[in-house]
Amino acid sequence: MSTYRSIFKKDPFKEEVILVTxxxxxxxxxxxxxxxxxxxxxxxxxxxxxxxxxVQDEIQRLGGVCDTMLxxxxxxxxxxxxxxxxxxxxxxxxGLVNNAGGQFMSPASQLTSKGFSTVVDLxxxxxxxxxxxxxxxxxxxxxxxxxxxxxxxxxxIPRAMHTGAARAGIINMTKTLAVEWGPYNGIRIxxxxxxxxxxSGMKNYHETMVDLLAHxxxxxxxxxxxxxxxxxxxxAFLLSPAASYINGVNLEVDGGSSLSKGNPEGDELKxxxxxxxxxxxxxxxxxxxxVHRIKHVDAPEKINELLVRYKNxxxxxxxx
Length: 320
Known about the structure:
Blueprint: E1 17-21, H1 26-37, E2 41-46, H2 49-61, E3 65-70, H3 76-90, E4 95-98, H4 113-142, E5 144-149, H5 161-185, E6 187-194, E7 197-198, H6 207-215, E8 226-227, H7 228-239, E9 250-253, H8 301-311
Parallel strand pairs: 1-2, 1-4, 2-3, 4-5, 5-6, 6-9, 7-8
Helix pairs in contact: 1-7, 3-4, 4-5
Organism: Linnemannia exigua
Function: Participates in chain elongation of fatty acids. Catalyzes the reduction of trans-2-enoyl-CoAs of varying chain lengths from 6:1 to 16:1, having maximum activity with 10:1 CoA. Has no 2,4-dienoyl-CoA reductase activity.
InterPro entries: NAD(P)-bd_dom_sf (IPR036291), Peroxisomal_t2-enoyl-CoA_red (IPR052388), SDR_fam (IPR002347)
């Protein structure tokens, strides 16, 4: 049987229940597939049921177990009800992946108070709502693991100041909750900060931005963008027993781009415009193994073309 090709051993999450918010598209969809392939009963939740049902069908065709629930993370009462429903139906909640969120591009000078508040409410307050609901509904008494998807904010996020402020707040909240909830409640909580990842989220970008991204993908120390699978693998690791001594950490999955952002003009010459020497990890089944014809990444065509190039990294002839 074809399946999502996780890098990890079989069934580390067997008999566990893990909630993934925003699990119907993009990185959240990939996380749901990976966790299901590793034995978890995955509950995916979002505001729209149609994408969730599509992902549920994909996971079930690949032999996994998946449940769906409607959820608006900005609604604290709804967050509480979803956690209660999961525990009532499945008997437990071992893991929570806070993936739901969103933003739009805007220079700070053109950003309205309403626009700023909306993004902060969705990302920062929504993440708090889910963490608190998980604590009150199960994890406060039984323990658990939480991983939140944030963004790489070390040197700010120009043209997205609102989400940078919100995500930085989540990173700090993660550290605080690790201190407060770790010793007496047995909860580990960490965050993952992706850099530029080839994902369906890029379809929301203006064509001018897509063109820019397609031509500048090499401008980081790894000389390429990341894949959804590389983010989902980091999440799986932090949820797994291998990360049992990791608490309150923000793991940057960005190819080292945070080390170079904001450098003076000309520093891009440190990078390799001829292409990456670092093989990409892609977990989606391919070729004859993809008997169920599971769709891979639904990014803009120019960006998807980069993935084809990344798949061939490592097959080049030696320069030695």
